[in-house]
């Protein structure tokens, strides 16, 4: 068993995010990867949680002030957010007015253009933050927020919340994508060890394939968004084969999209996803990956027709009711291993950013609260599975889900490199358009890596 899994509690998840939790230990406490933690369980009552009010006194007398929050986090996932604001409201006398909308991105722009911007919005992509800053409507983060982010986050997060060298938005929630799901009981029965390196993982895949079984199952189907799971595979491997500096250059188009280093990374992905000896366990041949819905792709692990499935921490919501998720449960996950002598495995992920549209004292005080470890721990205690923060002041034991605990540990590893989901940073016509299309062709029609990436390069906007 991977040593990172020791001491983690198991949790039984029902279908969907409104899960029924059964904790086998004692105690309790994304989309764009947003807040997905509204799901029952033994969570704390926000009214019973207290914070030190001193940090907010410097903003003056805020009694009777209001702060409006606009977000894509909607019912039922909104309630833990609302509950987590109670200690701040009790400290300051501020009334936080929460509004979630399924039309968030389109309506936020309309509201800004009409002069009706909220006080704070939770922005799910750095690219959208940059666009909004360009309107002149976004206020820089106050020094108290900057101090919190400097102390409690990896420096890359501050960069994603900055535009042209000015820091605007602190990170809020986060999700980790670099996981491989498996069955601990099946591994134990077969005598398989959780791989610590990429070579170990390939050797394990070969060992499983030699028995006549298929070690991997995968699916990139997602309606009009078909192809996005393949982008995560590619991004994860670019980080491992080419490194974070090349990753940044690639995402920012400082090197061609079809640079040889990126072709090499996609070919490395193909050694798994396009290998008929490896895939697609319980689902079909290689081409079935293109038509298999991503939410169904890992389910063959449960009947033993597949052994491993690479997907983010949020996949915990896709297991059927009664599935025990934990290091000794029906399913769990291990970090996608590093390639070569890379040390700790890189972490690919996403998250939201707290963006303010004025510099009122009440707004700045609330921004400060949301960037604090106190808020992160309270949010963890009032949430169910599916929420985590990259705030290093978060105690992983306050998270109810063992996968969320593992994600928090990865985020807090000082040796681990974090990078934001690359397709979310690219121009929309690439990251949520041509790249999806070409990677689907790469699977469905066995298009070569070089040809697929060249077509994406040719589609990159000129301005």
UniProtKB/TrEMBL annotation:
InterPro entries: Bact_solute-bd_prot1. Gene3D superfamilies: Periplasmic binding protein-like II. Coiled coil: none annotated. The keyword Transport applies. SUPFAM superfamilies: Periplasmic binding protein-like II. Keywords: Transport. Belongs to the bacterial solute-binding protein 1 family. This is Alpha-glucoside ABC transporter substrate-binding protein. It comes from Modestobacter marinus. The gene is aglE.
């Amino acid at each position: 068993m991977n040593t990172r899994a020791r001491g983690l509690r198991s949790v039984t998840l029902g279908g969907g995010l409104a899960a029924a939790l059964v904790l086998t230990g004692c105690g309790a406490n994304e989309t764009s990867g947003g807040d997905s933690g509204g799901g029952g369980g033994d969570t704390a009552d926000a009214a019973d949680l207290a914070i030190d009010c001193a940090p907010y006194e410097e903003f003056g007398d805020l009694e009777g002030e209001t702060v409006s929050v606009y977000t894509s986090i909607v019912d039922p996932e909104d309630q833990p957010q609302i509950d987590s604001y109670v200690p701040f409201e009790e400290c300051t006398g501020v009334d936080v007015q929460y509004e979630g909308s399924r039309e968030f991105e389109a309506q936020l722009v309309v509201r800004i253009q009409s002069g009706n911007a909220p006080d704070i919005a939770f922005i799910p992509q750095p690219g959208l933050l940059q666009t909004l800053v360009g309107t002149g409507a976004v206020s820089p983060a106050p020094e108290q927020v900057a101090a919190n982010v400097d102390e409690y986050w990896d420096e890359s997060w501050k960069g994603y919340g900055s535009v042209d060298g000015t820091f605007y938005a602190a990170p809020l929630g986060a999700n980790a994508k670099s996981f491989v799901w498996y069955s601990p009981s099946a591994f134990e029965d077969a005598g398989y060890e959780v791989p610590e390196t990429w070579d170990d993982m390939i050797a394990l895949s070969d060992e499983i394939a030699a028995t006549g079984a298929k070690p991997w199952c995968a699916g990139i189907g997602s309606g009009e968004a078909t192809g996005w799971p393949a982008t995560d595979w590619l991004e994860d491997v670019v980080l491992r084969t080419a490194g974070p500096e090349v990753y940044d250059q690639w995402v920012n188009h400082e090197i061609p999209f079809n640079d040889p280093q990126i072709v090499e990374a996609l070919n490395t992905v193909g050694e798994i996803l396009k290998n008929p000896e490896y895939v697609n366990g319980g689902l079909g041949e290689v081409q079935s990956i293109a038509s298999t819905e991503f939410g169904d792709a890992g389910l063959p692990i449960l009947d033993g027709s597949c052994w491993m499935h690479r997907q983010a921490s949020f996949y915990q919501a896709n297991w059927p009711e009664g599935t025990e998720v934990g290091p000794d449960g029906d399913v769990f996950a291990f970090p996608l291993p590093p390639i070569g002598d890379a040390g700790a495995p890189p972490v690919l992920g996403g998250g939201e950013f707290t963006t303010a549209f004025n510099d009122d004292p009440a707004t700045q005080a609330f921004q400060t609260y949301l960037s604090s470890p106190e808020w992160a721990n309270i949010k963890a205690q009032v949430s169910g599975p599916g929420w985590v923060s990259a705030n290093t002041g978060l105690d992983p034991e306050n998270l109810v889900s063992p996968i969320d605990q593992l994600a928090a540990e990865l985020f807090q590893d000082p040796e681990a490199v974090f990078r934001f989901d690359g397709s979310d940073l690219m121009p929309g016509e690439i990251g949520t358009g041509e790249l999806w299309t070409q990677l689907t062709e790469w699977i469905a029609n066995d298009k070569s890596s070089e040809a697929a990436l060249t077509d994406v390069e040719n589609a990159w906007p000129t301005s």
